[in-house]
Design goal:
- This protein has one domain (3-34, 42-261).
- By secondary structure, it is mostly helical.
- The protein has helices at 3-16, 23-33, 42-58, 60-71, 75-105, 109-128, 143-153, 163-173, 178-203, 212-237, 243-261.
């Protein structure tokens, strides 16, 4: 794999992992356009780790405070961690059972095109009917809300359905403020994506040596770009809704559909 392809894919991953546009979907299309076959998805999931570590870096102080509060047995910290555990249950059970089936049947540009367009339409519908937030603190979400957000995350198993989009908008639908839903989504991404990446790496560890240099390049690039993207998104959600992402997804889905019809992409 050429180094410049690793750079492009690292940029795509870093930009899209935490925006409600689907990083997996964009990577599938980018890999298709670049004629890069990530047969065992080792490259894809390692560079996703780079983006996840960007969250850890940005929230390092929060993690230190959380650890200190857990040691001190503060109720708020224990409740927040319990909320994350509850939210991880759907992905940790149903997700594991369906992982191989999704890989075999849904990892295609055709699936991405449909999911992008449908997801964009749903974003517009959700934003139009959004109610006043009842929960403004990501650290104090009710356990039922946390579990519901975790169930929404299962939708992201379908390529083109954004994990961050599903959890953030799901949180908004269940009464969380935009900022609380976004922050909870970021924290939830860490155990879930670490678990998924660890599963993929254990299953396909024999293929790591095949592309170690491109993997390293993509990992670093995705980390740096994700740092910028997360900071931007946190500022954006403070004063804007997600309609622009809905329109983008619809447009991207239509463009991909046209490219598939013209034979420019594999279905």
């Amino acid at each position: 794999m050429a180094w410049w392809k690793a750079v492009i894919l690292g940029i795509v991953e870093g930009l899209t992992e935490f925006l409600p546009v689907s990083s997996t979907g964009h990577l599938i299309v980018a890999q298709d356009l670049l004629r890069f076959a990530d047969e065992h998805e080792v490259f894809t999931f390692v560079i996703q780790l780079g983006a996840i570590l960007a969250v850890v870096a940005l929230y390092a102080r929060r993690f230190v405070d959380l650890a200190r509060d857990l040691i001190a047995r503060k109720p708020a910290a224990r409740r927040f961690v319990l909320g994350l555990v509850v939210a991880c249950i759907p992905a940790g059970t149903v997700g594991l059972l369906l992982d191989d089936w999704v890989d075999a049947h849904l990892m295609s540009s055709g699936t991405v095109a449909i999911s992008l367009a449908v997801g964009g339409f749903l974003i517009l519908v959700i934003e139009r009917g959004r109610r006043e937030a009842r929960h403004g603190d990501a650290w104090a979400l009710p356990l039922g809300t946390a579990f519901a957000i975790g169930c929404c995350q299962l939708l992201a198993m379908i390529p083109g359905v954004s994990r961050s989009g599903a959890t953030i908008l799901g949180g908004i639908c269940f009464g969380a403020s935009r900022q609380a839903a976004t922050e909870f989504s970021f924290f939830l991404a860490i155990p879930v994506m670490l678990g998924i990446s660890a599963l993929k790496l254990v299953k396909h560890r024999d293929h790591l040596d095949d592309q170690i240099v491109p993997i390293a390049i993509g990992f670093v690039i995705s980390f740096v770009v994700a740092l910028v993207a997360i900071r931007w998104l946190l500022r954006y959600v403070a004063t804007h809704d997600f309609k622009v992402f809905g329109w983008y997804r619809i447009a991207a889905g239509l463009v991909l559909g046209a490219m598939l019809a013209l034979g420019w992409l594999k279905g």
